[in-house]
Amino acid sequence: MIGSGKTTVGERLAQTLDLDFYDLDQEMDRILGHSFHQLVEEEGWVAFRELEYSICKRFAKLDNSVICLGGGTVRYEWNLDVIKGSGLVILLTASLEELIRRVKLADRPRVHVGTTAEEDIRKIWEKSKDKYYGAADLVYATDQKCIQEEVRELKQMVSEYVKR
Prior knowledge:
- By secondary structure, the protein is mainly alpha-helical.
- The protein has a single domain, classed as P-loop containing nucleotide triphosphate hydrolases (Rossmann fold, 3-Layer(aba) Sandwich).
- It has helices at residues 6-17, 24-32, 36-43, 45-59, 77-83, 96-105, 117-135, 147-163, and strands at residues 20-23, 65-68, 90-93, 138-141.
- It has a two-stranded parallel ribbon with strand order 1-2. It has a two-stranded parallel sheet with strand order 3-4.
- Helix 1 packs across helix 8 and helix 3 (36-43) crosses helix 4 (45-59).
- It is globular.
- The protein starts with 5 loop residues before the first helix and ends with a helix.
C-alpha cells in the first residue's frame, strides 16, 4: 500500500540479508529519465500501468533479491499473474491515519483525481484491501516499532517462511 514503508524497510531488509534491492518506482524513474509522476501527468495511468507490468515481468525473473513493488501493483490481475510464484510476497501495513500522514509528506499523483491525499488513500484501501491481503504470503505492520526492530522481525519471519 502507498505509504507503508516499502522502500525504507525493503532497502534495510536487503542490506541485512545481503541481497540485491530493487524498487519499482525507482526503476521506472531510471527507465523514463524523469519521475514517474511526470508520466502519469502527461500520459495517464494506463501508460504507467503498462510500464509497471513490463518491470514486474523482469523483476519476477530475479533471484536472491528484495523487490519493492509499487503501491498499487497488486491491484491488477496481470501483475499478480507475474508475481505469484516468483517469490515470497510480504504486505507491509499501517493504520490509515499513518498511511495518510506519510503520503501527505510526499507529493504523489492521486489515483482518484480531484481527491485529497486522505480521500485517495481511504478509497484505495476500501476498494482494494482484499487484493492486498490476497497477494501476500506474509503481513507485517510498519507503524508500531522502530525501523531496526521491524527489519529484525521481518528477517526472522522470512527465515522461518523459507524453512517451511
